[in-house]
């Protein structure tokens, strides 16, 4: 029997790992779920296991929070002996959090093959810790499981072999479609006194948006302008709580605790507009056909703009307010990207169990990594 370790670490991982685990188990694989403990409280962790029906992890590493290096190091330290003990055939990591990188590097130096779900996404913004995590994880992966053609194209341009790259679709949409019916029965709108189609949802947690008070204040000014057109509700990510409280939130923007998965899908589904810096939310709004403004200067998910309902609005308050007014008063066309069909987990299981790379490649082609130059430019610009 093929033994596969699936790694989960933080909120955006749970909805990605669940459909992969289900599909692997349905095909007879032995799945071992390892939780690194990067997110551990009830609102960011337990509610997702409960609502998505994920079984309790087989192993919990207790990484906790801390600096990037401290957190990454703790996960590596704890994962290495566990991996030696489990001796799996394949390790599956998802997304772009620190635990993804930590477990990827440990796996690459063990005997197991490494599969990365969400391979090939690139913001080309080296100030984002997630970009570093993605690029390094892809570099040491055997199976590169891409959600969209742009991601597969990035990988090809970086010199990965065709037999490593698998265009499988979007696992987050698998979970969304599987739970949409239940989510739409949520009473969250009633509890918050919101009228369908007449409110907006906001999420903010990227370091580039919430760690600098000047940037955050500018974003809040923009949200105050948008709130004059339609009231906004903002479920607060724990890392944004203190910055938001000290910046002061304008009238019409209501802070609420982080929402559970079903409530948050319900909030998105009936929103007039979503304003976000989250990666997953850009994808979910595209799948739901709900207009989304991304409060960043770039996105690693360009397909949500080219085919979906997303627009890059940047961080300038006037630009954000103008874009929001257009969206609220206009119509946003809707098109769902290919393979965002609820079956990505099944395609991943087929790749891992029936084909793809069977042996760790002994030599990769010289990396045609264009990032180095861009990285130097970004670093110089920052100083
Ligand atoms: N989400 C949630 N409750 C919230 C905010 C987000 O359940 O209050 C879900 C959202 O539906 C999506 C995932 O969390 O499935 C996205 O996670 P997050 O924004 O934390 O991370 P990112 O996608 O930016 O890495």
Task: Describe the protein.
By secondary structure, this protein is an alpha/beta fold. It folds into two domains: 3-169 and 341-377, Rossmann fold; 182-328, Rossmann fold. Helix content is 49%, strand content 14%. The strands form two sheets. It has a seven-stranded parallel β-sheet with strand order 3-2-1-4-5-6-7, sandwiched between helices. It has a six-stranded parallel β-sheet with strand order 10-9-8-11-12-13, sandwiched between helices. Strand 2, helix 2 (42-52) and strand 3 (59-60) form a beta-alpha-beta unit. Helix 3 (68-86) crosses helix 4 and helix 4 (98-108) packs parallel to helix 5. The N and C termini lie far apart (52 Å). It binds uridine-5'-diphosphate. Uridine-5'-diphosphate is lined by residues 11-12, 15, 203, 235, 258-259, 261, 264-265, 278-281, 284. Uridine-5'-diphosphate binds at residues 11-12, 15, 203, 235, 258-259, 261, 264-265, 278-281, 284.
